[in-house]
Amino acid sequence: MGVTLTVLSLIVLIPLSAVVLKAADQSPAEFWAVATSQRSLAAYRLSFGAAFVAAVINSIFGVLTAWALVRYEFPGKTLINALVDLPFALPTAVAGIALATLYAPNGWVGQFLTPLGIKAAYNPVGVTIALIFIGLPFVVRTIEPVLRDAAEDVEEAAASLGANRIDTILRIVLPALAPAWLTGFAMAFARGVGEYGSVIFIAGNMPYKSEIAPLLIIIQLEQFEYARAATIAVVMLAVSFTMLLVINAIQAWARRFD
Amino acid sequence: MTISIRSVEKKFGRYPALNKVDLEIKDGELLALLGPSGSGKTTLLRTIAGLEFPDAGQVLFDGQDVTFASAADRRVGFVFQQYALFKHMTVAKNIAFGLDVRKGKDKPSKAEIAQRVDDLLKLVELDGLGKRYPSQLSGGQRQRVALSRALAVQPSVLLLDEPFGALDATVRKSLRKELRRVHDATGVTTIFVTHDQEEALELADRVAILNKGQIEQIGTPDQVHDTPETAFVCGFVGEANSFEGQVGGGQFTAGSLRLPAGGVREGSATAYVRPHDFVLDDGGFEVRVERAHVQGALTTVNAVAQDGRPIEISASRAEAARFQGTVKIAARKAHVYAA
User: What ipTM describes this predicted complex?
Assistant: First the structure.
């Protein structure tokens, strides 16, 4: 307990309180002005919005991926399995450059999207694509073990009681996955909110339009506006912490049967 | 409902799990499928349920061919060894599930479902626990929930796969009585799988004994115990001393042991004698008593024949004192099978 607290303080609590202290260098009026400037608000909206959308998309495709990995045998399964972890290991800048190259209007994928009127890079769509890439393994790897442990006799029981396949999946399999699903969602979301490296290459970084909050912090730092950078950081910290608390509460509720 | 299994075969890879199995199950009976692990008993049960499909042969319910009908269409109640309860649902929701998933006019009203759940909870003596989650119940209670969930859909047949396997001895005993009571109250044709011969003999109307994917014998508990048709049945059902020896001139001989063996083919053979079929007899053969210990109304005697063969004898409590040193015993009854 003592060890845990010490480590947690050194690694997490002290750096975070330093951020808060730094932000407190300014007067409350200054703090408020920076925290709620139009540019900051646009950046929060993009960071949290894109992270949310990406986490939702990952929740859906992450379950499908995990399902395929657990329930089916197919050629190249080991390869796919390893690929899922790639976003964990790949330097985020590499991922960002690769995605930007692919999705740029003249890129391999982008060239087919442009005639359809879809612009998939240098705008919020691009940001979301990068965050989907980064977040997928979180969902897959939290769902997978739960799905693997889920006994198939439960599905057989549902079938023997007259449930069709859709009923069985919707009412038996997925609800049992809910707690792990929420964990995966929360982790993908949290990672998306804080993601920097892979996003800045594909985002376009236009203030008010495609500038993410972590980038805004870097910009403030480069201009030696440390207190302003800390202000934005504090806001993000507060919002993220609140959202994670809420997700934890929902999770506790979803685990009520354990 | 009557169930007919006609020359059903099932292979898993190259391993035959069921090898031309024929079985007739009578309406309303309580049948046990008894056998060692790997004998095909669970596969047979799952084939009846529609959770496995045979490679060859037929399954008939009341004369109707259901060989390839799905579990959902057969209206069977299946109770799994590990309960397979829906852990994210309350006990009441678990029991109601089979009624809840019905569609359109087949679906009972909410009040009817609630009533049925209540009745079932009473039937298995779990009244008042409907709002709990499975994780808040003991193993025995979970198995009762699984049983009432299966009964909720008013199945035409109730199938149980090693229903008491995961429970401790006391709970197991009381659940056995419970299953018998529920069976008698509902009258539903019931088949259960077990590897515990005591359980099968105590509970079932008839017992089918499986070995290596085939039915060795089917009969009442008394029939399979007292007149086993094959060596396997004799060894598997009830306690038995087994002896390898020779049959010649209507007699089985193994060392100093002699047993009547009328009608058995001459040559090498195996003889089985139940421990309670050995009695003290001055005309018999000599054994040396190693240990005689009294347990309840019985005395269990561990003895050794002259040639060193161990023999187990079961006698009454009163006879304990007479099993001392060297005694002469004879077999009242023996089962001899040509090898």
Answer: 0.79
